[in-house]
Amino acid sequence: MANSPQFNAELLGNRLIVWDYKQASGLYKLGFYGKPVGIAKPKSAEFETPLMVDLIEGFYLLEKRIIRIYKGPKKRGIGVKRFHKYAEKAYQRFNLDYLVYKKLRNHGYVVLPGIKFGCEFAVYERGPGIDHAPYMISVRASGDAITSTDIVRAGRLATSVRKRFIIAIPNLTTETVHYLMFKWFKA
Fold first, then answer.
1. Domain 1-91, CATH class in plain words
2. Quick check: 2 pLDDT over 80?
3. Residue 134 burial (C-beta neighbours within 10 Å; 0-12, 13-18, 19+)
């Protein structure tokens, strides 16, 4: 990995934008980071459009020194500590979700937002367009209540889209994550 960031991203509200098309395409190629603006399902990593990166991905890439984040017309850089504070304010459960994201990415998974599945993350073994995401992950704090209706609802959705439903329970103190995977069967 390079000592200095290869890619520049501008902070705009709750998103980062990589404006340079070549950088956008290059960052996407590194691990399916971000989403090309205006392209629902990229057929290739070669595109000529900016790349939108969410706060969780952005923080991961900033920590790994892959991107440089800046804000405003003077392009003032934002460091790890300052960006972390910003993300915590903008994203209510940032630390919980980020720990799960980081652990999964560090284990080689491709982790994308799971909003269309009603969960935090859709997790791929290789990447979109290569395989389908076999897992949908819901992040819960250890004290969160979960009802049997929540589990059945998630299980029915997971089964209908052929995915495994997983609840991830991060521990911020020990920086560990416990996973509960549900397997559905017919009686």
1. alpha beta
2. no
3. middle
Active site residue 107: no
- Whether the pLDDT of residue 72 is over 70: the answer is yes
Q: Give catalytic status of residue 124 as yes or no.
A: yes
Sheet holding 121-124, edge to edge: 110-113, 121-124, 135-139, 164-171, 176-182
Chain centroid, CA 77 distance in Å: 22
Instruction: Please give the C-alpha separations between residue 14 and each of 22, 139, 147, in angstroms, as whole numbers.
Output: 23, 20, 31
DSSP string of 81-96?
HHHHHHHHHHSTTHHH
- Give this prediction's pTM: 0.90
Q: CATH says 92-187 is which class?
A: alpha beta
Please state the domain extents for the chain: 1-91, 92-187
Name the active-site residue from 29, 85, 132, 178.
132
Tell me the per-residue pLDDT of 81-131, one tens digit each, with 9 for 90 and over.
Answer: 999 999 999 999 999 999 999 999 999 999 999 888 888 999 999 988 888
Q: Rounded mean pLDDT of the chain?
A: 91
* Token representation of residue 137: 């992950």
C-alpha distances out from residue 54 to 12, 34, 116, 144, Å: 10, 7, 15, 25
Q: Any catalytic annotation for residue 132? A: yes
Catalytic residue among 33, 86, 101, 124: 124
